[in-house]
Amino acid sequence: MNLYAYLNAQHTSALKKAEHISRLPKQDKYSRKIFLDDLIRHLNSLFLAEQVSLYAAVEQFATSTNFLESSLRNQEMVMSKLKSYALDPHDDDNIPHLLHTYNSNQQAYVFPVFKKHVNADTEYALGNFSAQFYDQVFRDVHSRDAFMRTAAHLPGNLKERARQRLEQVLHPYPLHHTA
Known about the structure:
Distance between the termini: 50 Å
Radius of gyration: 17 Å
Number of domains: 1
Largest sheet: none
Order of helices and strands: HHHHHHH
Shape: globular
Number of strands: 0
Structural class: mainly alpha
């Protein structure tokens, strides 16, 4: 499956999970929490797979890193809001809207750059990698181990960039050493 189709399918799955949560009775806090925790886990794994595959592929073509930084901030905002809903489900009916907005931004800004610059073979290889990587991470395999197990699916020219992207995600703030 190509990366675009895979990510769209995963985002559609997340949206369906969110819509299911919003249809549950407000009084059923236990079920809502279980499904919300599953959605958070799904999106954590999906966003990591996105960052390591999609963003690694498009960052070299971006005339500005603003749209990538904006997408990463949007991911952080989505996860932050979902985690706050898990603690206090006062406004969790807004989850479908939140995910729709995120997906619309991806469709408008990130995917056009990807579709313009990435050939079909690379897109297919990235889709295979992303699906395998997501599956490993979702099953609680540490992301570095998951990367090592699935990196063979990556095109050779993207392996190092994807690995660097993963390290950047795992350690977003460089350590500053003082003498």
